[in-house]
Records
---
Amino acid sequence: MATLTRLSKWVALARIDPGVEIDLSVPSVGKIRGARQTVRQGESVIMVGRGSGLVKGVVLEVHPDFIFTSFIARAGDGGAPVLSDTGELIGILYGADVTKSYVVPIEPILRELDMQLLTE
């Protein structure tokens, strides 16, 4: 089904075996349409989390290592995809406090791991 390769204490990759079918869509959203390289303050975003389900918000701040958003994630949402309103992957939810959520941008992760996001 899949082969797991541990790259470090914090990173592991799963390689899907040939012939295994995968669904590249996000529940309530549809297929991811690629990875967004730039994000701007005020841009609309959506997240589909295990605890929150589908939530919408806006980008509050953009920093090299984090994007802060207005939606407040719930327990269990960590690792959820955060997408632009056009379905491009912006990042992965890291956590939240009472005023904002913290999103790790996807592009630096893909670059560091020399990977490409599957969209088909």
Note: Residues 96 and 119 are 28 Å apart (CA to CA).
---
Amino acid sequence: LYVYMTCSHEFGPIFLNFFSSKFFFVVYHALMPLKPDHTEDSNQILLVNHIRRTYPDIAPYWHHSPAGGSRSPREAQKFKMMGVARGIPDLLCMASCGPYVGAAIELKLPKGRLSDDQKLWLERLESQGWYAKVAYGYEESQFFIDEYCQLS
């Protein structure tokens, strides 16, 4: 039996293996902290941890919809029928701050590039009063998050 837990610091998830009344820690990314700009996933984990530590009042309003990744044709069709759309930004904040109704941040590695669907979503959201940004790398991502969360 494997149980999934998340750490409260900048380490990846921990999997606990309960076997014969003893449990063994199988630690993923726990020997070394996650490195910024290693992968988009590692950046996102670090950023969500930053939001939770720095902005606990607004953290529950931040969300990620796992729309990306590879899926079987059947699962992809099911997700499409459920309303999953291509190009949705990686991080969404459903709380208004300052003049904005919400925040949408598309995370990219420093040399990444936007797809046409991602550009379209950012333009749509910006036209509806959202703080919509594409962030290249961890530092720029953290800057945009901090800028948005500190608006009053």
Note: The beta strands are 2-5, 14-19, 22-27, 62-63, 91-93, 103-108, 131-136.
